[in-house]
Predict the structure.
Amino acid sequence: MLNLTLKNIPSELHLRLKARAESNRRSLNREILALLEAQFEAPAVDVASEQLRLERFVATLPRVDHTRIRRYRSSGRA
């Protein structure tokens, strides 16, 4: 096995890593390895195609009549 040294880790990040390791009942080293492995195993996301898919979905949603909502709010119904 190879060794890797991390330098200049912000205190807040170190505390978060330690807390996460403790909650997962792992050593700090094992927790960092698990996070790195999960990151590399995560599927790549094509942001442009996901944005297009989301825009298409939003286009299928019903339109909101804001004048009706304002009327309900002013009458105390919403």
User: Anything to note?
Assistant: The helical segments are 11-23, 28-41, 47-60, 66-74. Residues 11-74 form one domain. The first helix runs from residue 11 to 23. The chain has a mean pLDDT of 92.
